[in-house]
Amino acid sequence: MELYNRVEIYNPGGLPKGLSAEEFGKRSVCRNPLIASLLLRCDYIEKMGTGIERIRAALEKENCPKVKIRFNTMFTLEFPRPTYVKTKDDTWKTSEKTSEKILQLIASNQRTTIAELAKAIGVTTRSIERNIKNLQAQGRLRRTGPDKGGHWAITS
After folding, report:
1. Domain 6-80, CATH 3.30.565.60 — does that match?
2. Domain-by-domain residue ranges, the chain?
């Protein structure tokens, strides 16, 4: 087993009473409502019950692996390390899986939009834009015509 392939965060206490594993991250149950209310009023915390969804959104935005959540007497958040590859111009980027998916989808429909690509692949539009920019810089993809009405062309 690889030693440094993830980051784990442990929280004692497991799930709060009245919260199922399926509801975790979607519904908030305070362990101590008085303390939570005080911290919110003092602006020490910005929102209650939104952390897990914000973590998931941030990971998706950066095209990182999804967080793994485990429950027992504690709950654990496991963040798998993203895999990076070195490119020809000596920069590092995440695995080319998204880029390859983009090329496959464009090969089947040259008039596909960035929003359609993002939905089909399951990443954000920003991630698609970043990958398309890299593909264009590598000379593997070219845009022909205007933004509206144009199409993509895959180059060798």
Report:
1. yes
2. 6-80, 84-154
Given a cut of 50, whether residue 1 has pLDDT beyond it is no
Give tens-digit pLDDT for 66-82. Answer: 888 888 888 888 888 77
| SS3 assignment for the chain | CCCCCEEEEEEECCCCCCCCCCCECCECCCCCHHHHHHHHHCCCCCCCCCHHHHHHHHHHHCCCCCCEEEECCEEEEEEECCCEEECCCCCEEECCHHHHHHHHHHHHCCCCCHHHHHHHHCCCHHHHHHHHHHHHHCCCEEEECCCCCCEEEECC
Which architecture, in CATH terms, is 84-154? Orthogonal Bundle (1.10)
Global pTM reads: 0.48
Summarize the confidence of residues 3-17 as an average pLDDT: 81
